[in-house]
Design goal:
By secondary structure, the chain is an alpha/beta fold. It is 45% helix and 19% strand. It is built from five helices and five strands. α1 links the parallel β1 and β2.
Length: 124
């Protein structure tokens, strides 16, 4: 079956761009605008991988990642944090929350596809 990828970002243009980059690869793409919406999707129909924005209103990406990785039922889902933040503190916060990998904005399509495929292969 095709891998299911959840894209979580409060900015529509960011979600759309990731969807365009991934749409021709045969993945089933799901989207969420907020952290609580992402957690509801993960609980109902767990994806195979999550692309997660850091800066969102309400619950930020670190909190979402920590909740997913803190749950035995979902901790195996790989999370790639997509961020414009380039400082090491932001990455350390992500690693502490359980994030598996990082992508910096602007996102390079080739890098995105390699990172997604690598994590999906490791999960399998």
């Amino acid at each position: 079956r095709p891998a299911r990828i959840l894209i979580v970002d409060d900015q529509r243009q960011n979600r759309d761009l990731l969807e365009i980059m991934l749409s021709q690869e045969g993945f089933v793409l799901l989207t969420a605008v907020r952290g609580d919406e992402a957690l509801a999707i993960v609980a109902q129909q767990p994806p195979d991988l999550i692309l997660l924005d850091v800066m969102m209103p309400g619950m930020d990406g670190y909190q979402v990642a920590a909740m997913i990785k803190g749950d035995l039922a979902t901790r195996h889902i790989p999370i790639i944090m997509v961020t414009a933040l380039h400082d090491s503190n932001a990455r350390m916060l992500g690693l502490r929350a359980g994030v598996d990998d990082f992508l910096s904005r602007p996102v390079d399509r080739a890098e995105l596809l390699v990172r997604v495929r690598n994590l999906l292969r490791l999960k399998a």
